[in-house]
Design goal:
Layout lengths: L1 H39 L8 E5 L6 H10 L12 E5 L6 H9 L6 E6 H6 L13 E10 L1 E6 L7 H10 L5 E4 L5 H13 L4 E4 L3 H9 L5 E5 H9 L3 E6 L25 E8 L4 H15 L2 H9 L4 E4 L1 H21 L5
Helix pairs in contact: 2-10, 6-11
Length: about 350
Amino acid sequence: MKKWKALKTLTLMCSIFILLVGCSSGGNETSASNSGSSEKKVDYPTKPIQMIVPFSPGGTTDTAARTLAAVINKYLPNEETVAVENKDGGAGTIGMSEVFQAKADGYTIGMATSGPMTIKPHSGQVAYKPEDFKPVIQVVATPNVLVVKNDAPWKTYEEWFDYVSENPGEFTYGTSGAGLTQHITMENFRVKTKAEVKHVPFKGGSPALTALLGGNIKGALVQTTEALPFIEDGSLRPIFISGTFKPEELNDVPLLTEKDVDVEGDVWTGIVVPKDVPDEVVQILHDSFKKALEDPEVIKQFSNIGASPFYKNSTEFKEVIDQEYKINGEVLEAVGLKG
């Protein structure tokens, strides 16, 4: 009996000991969990961020980048800054290659556009593909517009289309470069309509417009922001818009889709980072640049260049890139330009 009582007492003491240890252990687990969650908070950024713009200074992409960089310190943690660096060449691929090769720590980001991201990778001449980047945020979208001189004989889309249909290869049009968005848009137009037009590439939209005004070509497909001043002063006439939307100033100009031509695509601009940048860092960048995009000074500066903030979050931006990459690949293959 004494042995039984002793055994019960020992069992009770063991149970109390286990309970106490268990509670103590549980408290430690909670503390570790809390500590782990605080460790997950990334202290970023703690130094200036480099933003690579893959084009020369002065264009829409560069202006958008510098406008955002001018206010971003108000919205980034630790009031850190962003320094814009232009790495032009290769129709945007040199700059994007540098972003692709950068350390995946969030301190090198890229201001990407549709050409080097969704067209040039199909050439087989670059080492990267869209999946090698993480989209952060889309900040601008600009449709393209086909313009002709104001004294040209075509006043409407129908008149122009009748001409190019009846005169294969006679209509010459300029763009900002071979293999870029405007060129591929017109190649897609050729595939969909069977109309033959002749491409003349230039090193930017401005030189293409200069050639058009000088009578060296018959038309130019350029961003609406580039053409708008000449449309407003009466020297150029818009024929159609090949984007997904119309700027307010060109509301009476038809979209190609309104003419039953299934061709659309904007020149978008957005921020990307190397694919292995942590999601927490991507989120910080997204949230900070979204606030910058809503800054009154940014809206004002964008308006000065004829652009408007055009926000898409990381997921939506990725869908835009993936869809364009697919469509552009199909077009390039159809016209024999896929590498």
